[in-house]
Amino acid sequence: MGVDFGLFSRALLEETAVPSDLGAMRPPRIGYIGNVNDKVDFELLESIARAKPLWSVILVGPLSIRTPEFRGNFEKLRQLPNVHHLGFRPLETLPNYVRGLDVV
Question: Which long-range contacts (CB under 8 A, 24 or more apart) does 70-74 make?
Fold first, then answer.
């Protein structure tokens, strides 16, 4: 698996704007960018979100959870007030989201 270095290196540029939906969320912002699926450790993210209620936990990517157990874990995570699933975003905008995160 690889990454488009040219595209994602834009996240390091000062002129790369943070999207308004992300910018409106309280920092520090920790995030996951990718397919939100059964491979994501939702229980770990829930532990982080509960332990650090002043942090924003952000997931950017399409939802494609297949199993009921993982769907339940995701829904439980999503109930927390400091957790935000922004859904699908176009590839060319992802460096902007990376720019606005404190931890990726």
Answer: 70/37, 70/38, 70/42, 73/42, 73/43, 73/46, 74/36, 74/40, 74/42
